[in-house]
Give the backbone structure.
Amino acid sequence: MVDERIKVNSEIISASIHRHMLEYLKKTGGIPVSTRRCSDRSVGDPNPSGRSAFFSFLISLALGALCTPLATLPSMARQRLGQHFLADLHRREEIARAIRVSPHSTVPLANSDQHCWIEIGSGHGEMTQHLLATGSLVHAIELDPAFLPGLRHLAKQFPNLDVVPGDILESDIAAIASGRRIRLYGNLPYYITSPILHHLFTFADLIDEIHVVIQAEVARRLVAQPGTRDYGYLSVVTQFYARPEFVFEIPRDAFNPPPEVTSALVTLRLPGERAKLSLRSSETPAVGAQAHPPREVATRFLDFVKLCFSKKRKTLVNNLRALAKPDRVREALEEAGLAEVPRLEEKLNLLATIAQLAPLLGLLGTVLGFIKTFMLMQKEGLHTHYVTLSDGIWQALICAAAGLAVAIPAHAAYNYLVSRVNSIVLDMERAATEIVNIVTEGLKL
């Protein structure tokens, strides 16, 4: 598409120059010096100043005709959209290897009809062709209309490319994927990184991987651990839905135009900590009403986390002032502790049951083995061959050994987990008491 526009621009320039040359020749009645033979230059030109003015005019005309149409080419980044194109071919290949779409990747992704790629902000298609090389269906979401013709031209060469005009923040990812599992890649505008991630997380159940190029500072916040300076609400919400990995930094000069900050590639593998939690509403639904769905409960949990981190310069007590009264906070903490302990006890009871039943089953097998042996001895008398008796004896020994092999580790694990549960319960009670005291004192201020 770009080559076609350049060709059109060249034809416009040539026609304009030709037209103005004819007008000049009609006025002067002479031939410009550029069309004369070299031998004619020795004769001298009767109007050198006019010749110079003519060529100055032609140069300015050509530059004007060239600059005006080319200003509309999509290679120019639009500052309002936060466009910074990945121009470094080496960095593109590094990213392709990291997200496993390059044939040179350590473990390239296999072509799967169950998955599709969704690219956020395809631009000129810098990474689109790498995604297309996997053979999977690629949905290229692009907001800027200037890039759509080029992407549609690329779609004619690759039937597995689907160009989707529109804003990612308004896109229905589920409808675009049409039942397939999703892998995402995008070079995200830095000023809307957080809204885009929040929008993607609403489709977390459909997504397997998210690979994004973002500001390095934001990337460190996504992977930050509790107790560090970068840890905050964005860290919690990201790790709630995904398992983030800081892959590598990308220098400023790899982009055109270069951004003001260093960038980084981050990989988010889903699911995250949410899969390990059993979030549920503490409110008992009214008669005839439905309980809160898991997504709504998760949203309320994240709203609570956001409230905790809402004002970093203030204490947690001040952030929680508008949440609830001290009595309600105390009840919620007690309910959470009482709900957690029975689940731990259920797991321990199962382990204790296995530890108790295993030796009994082994003993039962031993008794049956000896009964079999004595029945054979009673039937054949004292002259019974030892080979006949060995089957029953082996059965008795194997059952006894199997029962002990299961019972001993089960008993050891049970005693260990009992000690751990007691320690956890004490820690929960201590933490709950401290939190209640802090919140109560803070709300009294």
